[in-house]
Amino acid sequence: MTLDELQPGISCKMTGLTASGALGQRLMDLGFYPGAAIAIVRNAPLVDPVELHLDGYHVSLRHNEARHIEVEIR
């Protein structure tokens, strides 16, 4: 399952990252690593971006970026 498929209010744990290159590096720099705790806070009114609570801080990603983050629901 990928992060873009989840609805607000769901908590999950990151299991993998399929992005490579600059996007993969950016996501890792933001704190997306296997085992990271992620909670979906909300989607913007026009769907993009999605706001996440990641290890104590808030991050916003586009759905096409969130599609590269593999998760499992806790």
The CATH homologous superfamily name equals: Ferrous iron transport protein A (FeoA)
Radius of gyration: 11 Å
- Helix residue percentage: 10-25%
Kindly state the number of beta strands: 5
The largest sheet, given as strand count, sense and whether it forms a barrel, is:
5 strands, antiparallel
Please report the number of helical segments.
Answer: 2
Low-confidence segments, given as residue ranges, are none
CATH class: Mainly Beta
Shape: globular
Structural domain count: 1
**What is the CATH topology?**
SH3 type barrels
List the strand order in the largest sheet: 4-3-2-1-5
Proper CATH architecture: Roll
Q: What string gives the helices and strands in order?
A: EHEEEHE
Q: How much strand content do the residues show?
A: 35-45%
The separation of the N and C termini measures 12 Å
Report on the architecture of this protein.
Helix content is 19%, strand content 45%. A hairpin with a 2-residue loop joins strand 2 and strand 3 (47-54). The chain contains two helices and five strands, in the order βαβββαβ. The chain starts with 10 loop residues before the first strand and ends with a strand. It has helices spanning 21-30, 63-66; strands spanning 11-17, 37-44, 47-54, 57-61, 69-73. The longest helix is centred in the middle third of the chain and has 10 residues, at 21-30. Strands 4-3-2-1-5 form a five-stranded antiparallel β-sheet. The model has no long low-confidence stretch (mean pLDDT 93). It is globular. It has one domain (3-73): SH3 type barrels (Roll), CATH 2.30.30.90. With 74 residues, the protein is of the alpha+beta class.
